[in-house]
UniProtKB/TrEMBL annotation:
Protein's UniProt keywords contain Glycosyltransferase: no
One Pfam family per UniProt: PKD
Lineage: Eukaryota, Metazoa, Chordata, Craniata, Vertebrata
UniProt-listed InterPro entries: Ig-like_fold, PKD/Chitinase_dom, PKD_dom, PKD_dom_sf, Sortilin_C, Sortilin_N, VPS10, VPS10-sortilin
Originating organism: Ficedula albicollis
Keyword Cell division among record annotations: no
This protein's name: VPS10 domain-containing receptor SorCS2
Protein family (similarity comment): Belongs to the VPS10-related sortilin family. SORCS subfamily.
Main location: membrane
Keywords: Cell membrane, Cell projection, Cytoplasmic vesicle, Disulfide bond, Endosome, Glycoprotein, Membrane, Postsynaptic cell membrane, Repeat, Signal, Synapse, Synaptosome, Transmembrane, Transmembrane helix
């Protein structure tokens, strides 16, 4: 019944087999690839073709004598003869397409100027193709890939769609999610002939969330997030977008589209309190109003943030779904026959596969199934259903009070879930042939196999077949060419390093003839309660008799008859804003309004003068075709729409950025959630003198466009008012020029515990709402200021990195400097000849270069190590500098004054001798000298030379004052207290930091004294000096 072939397809650990899902009746194409995980690309590939159902394969040589690497191939869904291969060179420098119009018999090479990540054929017109690149660009071809034109840039991956036939008026339309220049995302459409900024259409006003656009059947979905709240929008048949109405306090964290067929939407919503479960909702035909169907459906997080919801639509019978519900950690499987209106547990079988009692009795025990999807597209998942085999379901699971992850017994039903039978004790991969007339099962195992099992009586009995003489590791199953034939292929490999093994299995010889009408019987669909009227009709299907050994063939159709039923209670579910009083199956349960919903209130889109109906709490299940009988929607109350006050008025900027640049065109969007709009006047004040009054502002679709010319903060307000009331919305707009440059100004050498001024110089100077973030050392938490400076101290010596980030509107810059903190050092003021001022651009790089050349020249002239010298050129004119003389790192502190004196003397000598000079453009030589040769070069903290005289004078005054206080201490005891308080206040008043240029020169220096005395620090700032004076008087 089968034959095998090893056509030389090399099998490796990362090889991948790809097969087209749709082929003609004979041709099969197989692509094998060696994908290198670390390099992230395909290194080797082979393309094989069979034209006889897989009996014989031929390796295709696309370029004789040249190794061709094929990344992927794509088959046109409307004409399977047309195939496009995507090929890359070994060096990844270029990429080519190989195009076939004869099912791969011949290929034509077509070089392209971009790198394809994915191709998308037009769903109706076979020669039109979209190509998406890794750079986010989309190219379009109208001649099957021979010529390409750039359509759009900055497009989100997997979020571009061809027009939907019967919904979009123009089949050449493309829906896309793109990133705008401001960084936000928006939804656009354009024609493939022209997609410029002038011709594109923006159907949704405002920005959208990234990767949120979905175009599916009659619906378009997208979402927006603002203030940590996400809103979901839907467009039905390309009408305007409307916010999807979920229960008011669902507060969804995530929403997944489950299904959009049969003119309604199924969504799974993860609400605010859920972590690994979702709630299932069903919409009205427009996809706007949603009602709860089932709570706490289990979900699984997949790689790349993908989410799998444990719900499965049973193919072949409309309205039937399976779902796994998780409550208190227990997972149970439920089934519905009426699109989620009612749910039931799966009835367990009475006996197992060996005929022994299962002892599984409800309500303590049921059948539970795994609803996992298969990672490999060429093997079935844990539950297998087919459109061509209605009522036939096979799944892996277990009997018990809950689903057990490691139990994967196989069960089958041929009456759409009403009765079940156990067929295997372990999980198997399933393949249906001949419309389910033959069921093939191969064990899902990691060991090699050579036996498959098959059944021709809907799983009641099973036979075995040796499909190969040598055991193989099975990698996949494939029917040839679909479910209507009896030919299949098993592909796998014998060992880890062996070639691919393909085995063709043909069941046709087992059946002597084609089926006739006498070989079929009817089967009527019922639910677990035995009801025949499901979704408003009785449906019967044709099934082959168990005793008939015949082939159903291509012409077989399973549908037999359908009869419309009268409506009953179960044909209605709860309307939006209502919930049932009892879970799962209960015909007597009623729908009650949620506390937040007022059924009598007019809808939000109610227009004055028109009528509306208040809900009775029920609506008919979409696609239910019942007629007559019970009508839970009757006796609807009709009301006239009243004049309602505007409510929920909002004003925003398209792109949601409240920070704009002067002269930038911005668009204000005004939205009103509730209230009348036709009779409402809108007073708009844009804050810069522009005022206007609009009528129907929120309905015209014409946003307010404006441009602010001057920087500043503008208060923009919109007031909506009618006879019933008013509402107002306000937004503040920041208009600032973008930051162009940032420079952190800081003295590179600082004394320990000395106050220092860190200054950020920005261009242009934006006084409005510029925020400065300061990081000192390794601190992760920044200091925030609205001023461009920060006064701080450094408690530890060493090299400390200071970083500042400046944020203004949407722009941000950063600069960083290293500060050297010492206990002791010398400072010598330097000056330059006036020629230098003419060429001083006053930029940091220039000052650093001048400082480096002076340091280098001094080190060379005096033989002092260059690492102990640092010249810092000050900003501004005239050009001046400070020379910092640092102590060697390995020299003890108490023996350094002699060495320091010698170094200072050598430096002075070199400067006074005019030995330090450098060449300047224009033929000038710049001479470097001491700034004040008559002053004490060994100054403390970088102050002026007269500090020594001032200190001596103050000490004298202190001594006189102390003597007077002592003299009159006994006579005037209260004066002593007053003197102390007075000096304390004096300290508080004089100690604030002076932000002048002198502040940067306050250096913790070493005072030069005699050799037999230790170096001492008298103080470095006016505040510290006054503080010391206060302590002296108090003593």
């Amino acid at each position: 019944m089968g034959n095998s072939q090893s056509p030389g397809l090399q099998k490796t650990s990362s090889a991948e087999m790809t097969l087209p899902r749709k082929r003609n009746e004979k041709v099969i194409l197989i692509l094998t690839k060696y994908y290198h995980t670390d390099m992230g690309k395909v290194l080797e590939s082979s393309l094989w073709r069979s034209s006889d159902f897989g009996t014989l394969y031929t390796k295709l040589n696309l370029q004789p004598g040249i190794a061709t690497v094929i990344d992927n191939f794509y088959i046109c869904s409307t004409n399977k003869k047309k195939i496009i291969l995507v090929s890359s060179s070994h060096n990844d420098r270029d990429q080519s397409l190989f195009i076939s119009t004869d099912e791969g018999a011949t290929f034509q090479k077509q070089p392209i100027a971009f790198f394809v990540e994915t191709l998308l054929f037009h769903p109706k017109e076979e020669d039109k193709v979209l190509a998406y690149t890794k750079e986010g660009k989309i190219y379009v071809s109208v001649d099957l890939g021979k010529k390409w034109n750039l359509l759009q840039e900055r497009v989100s991956k997997d979020h571009f769609f061809w027009a939907v036939a019967g919904v979009d008026g123009d089949l050449d339309l493309v829906h896309m999610e793109i990133q705008d220049p401001s960084g936000g995302y928006r939804y656009i459409t354009c024609q493939i002939q022209n997609c410029s900024d002038k011709t594109m259409t923006v159907p949704f006003a405002g920005s959208t969330d990234r990767d949120s656009l979905t175009v599916q059947d009659d619906y378009i979905f997208l979402q927006t997030t603002s203030a940590n709240r996400t809103k979901y929008y839907v467009s039905y048949r390309r009408n305007g977008f409307v916010q999807m109405k979920l229960p008011k306090y669902a507060l969804p964290k995530d929403l997944q589209i489950i299904s959009t067929d049969e003119n309604q939407v199924f969504v799974a919503v993860q609400e605010w309190y859920q972590t690994d479960t979702y709630n299932l909702y069903q919409s009205d035909p427009q996809g706007v109003y949603y009602s709860i169907l089932l709570e706490n459906v289990r979900s699984t997080k997949q790689p790349e943030e993908n989410v799998l919801i444990d719900i499965l639509e049973v193919r072949g019978v409309k309205g039937v779904f399976l779902a796994n519900q998780k409550i208190d950690g227990k997972v149970t499987t439920l089934i519905t026959y009426n699109k989620g209106r009612d749910w039931d547990f799966l009835t367990p079988p009475d006996i197992d596969m060996n005929g022994k009692p299962t002892n599984c009795k409800p309500p303590d025990c049921y059948l539970h199934l795994h609803l996992r999807w298969a990672d490999n597209p060429y093997v079935s998942g844990t539950v297998h259903t087919k459109d061509t085999a209605p009522g036939l379901i096979m799944g892996a699971g277990n009997l018990g009070s809950q689903l057990v992850e490691y139990k994967e017994e196989m069960y089958i039903t041929s009456d759409c879930g009403k009765t079940w039978r156990q067929v295997f004790e372990e999980e198997h991969h399933i393949l249906y042939l001949d419309h389910g007339g033959v069921i093939v099962a191969i064990k899902d195992t990691s060991i090699p196999l050579k036996i498959l099992k098959f059944s021709i009586d809907e799983g009641q009995t099973w036979s075995t077949h040796n499909f190969t003489s040598t055991s193989v590791f099975v990698d996949g199953l494939l029917s040839e060419p679909g479910d209507e034939t009896l030919v299949m292929t098993v592909f796998g490999h014998i060992s880890y390093r062996s070639d691919w093994e393909l085995v063709k299995v043909d069941f046709r010889p087992s059946f002597p003839r084609e089926c006739t009408d006498e070989d079929y019987e009817s089967w009527e669909l019922t639910n677990l309660q035995g009801d025949r009227c499901i979704m408003g009709q009785q449906r019967s299907f044709r099934k082959r008799k168990i005793s008939s050994w015949c082939i159903k063939g291509k012409s077989f159709t399973s549908a037999l008859t359908s009869k419309v039923c009268e409506c009953v209670n179960t044909d209605f579910l709860c309307d939006y804003g209502f919930e049932r009083s009892a879970p799962l199956q209960s015909e007597s349960s009623k729908c009650f309004a949620d506390f937040w919903f007022n059924p009598e209130a007019p809808p939000e889109d109610c227009v004055l003068g028109q009528a509306y109906t208040s809900s009775t709490g029920y609506r008919k299940v979409v696609s239910n075709v019942c007629e007559g009988g019970v009508d839970l929607q009757q006796n609807l109350a009709h009301h006239m729409c009243p004049l309602t006050a505007p409510k929920g008025l909002q004003i925003s900027i398209r792109g949601e950025s409240l920070a704009v640049r002067p002269g930038e065109d911005i668009t204000f969007i005004v939205q009103q959630e509730q209230g009348d709009v036709l009779s409402t006047k809108y007073q708009v004040d844009l804050g810069d003198g522009f005022k206007a009054i609009y009528v129907n502002l929120t309905m015209t679709g014409e946003p307010i466009r404006h441009r602010y010319e001057s920087p500043g903060i503008y208060r923009v307000s919109v007031k909506a008012e009618n006879v019933a009331g008013h509402d107002e919305a306000v937004v503040f707009v920041q208009v600032n020029s973008p930051l162009q440059a940032l420079n952190l100004e800081v003295v590179p050498v600082i004394g320990r515990n000395q106050e220092v001024n860190l200054t950020a110089i920005i261009l242009p100077k934006n006084p409005n709402l510029t925020v400065f973030y300061w990081w000192i050392g390794n601190n992760l938490q920044p200091l925030l200021t609205l001023e461009s400076f920060l006064v701080t101290t450094f408690a530890e010596t060493g090299d400390i990195r200071v970083t500042v980030q400046v944020s203004c509107g949407s722009s941000m810059l950063q600069d960083s400097k290293v500060v050297h903190v010492f206990d002791h050092f010398h400072v010598l003021p330097l000056k330059f000849t006036k020629h230098l001022d003419m060429y001083n651009p006053d930029i940091p790089e220039w000052r650093e270069d001048i400082g480096r050349v002076v340091t280098r020249l001094l080190a060379k002239e005096t033989s002092i190590p260059e690492e102990t010298l640092m010249t810092v050129v000050k900003p501004g004119l005239p050009t001046a500098a400070d020379l910092h003389v640092l102590l060697p790192a390995n020299q003890p502190k108490k023996k350094r004054s002699i060495t320091s004196d010698k170094r200072i003397a050598a430096i002075k000598q070199a400067l006074n001798a005019h030995n330090i000079s450098f060449f300047l453009r224009g033929g000038y030589w710049v001479l470097v000298t001491l700034a004040d040769s008559g002053s004490d070069s060994q100054r403390i903290g970088g102050g002026s030379g007269y500090w020594a005289i001032v200190v001596l004078f103050v000490i004298c005054l202190v001594a006189v004052g102390a003597f007077i206080l002592y003299k009159f201490k006994r006579k005037l005891p209260g004066r002593n207290v007053y003197a102390q308080m007075h000096n304390e206040k004096e300290q508080e008043m004089t100690s604030p930091v002076n932000h002048s240029e002198d502040t940067q020169n306050i250096i913790q220096g070493e005072e030069f004294i005699d050799d037999d005395l230790d170096s001492q620090t008298l103080g470095n700032a006016r505040g510290n000096f006054v503080f010391s004076l206060y302590i002296f008087i108090s003593s």
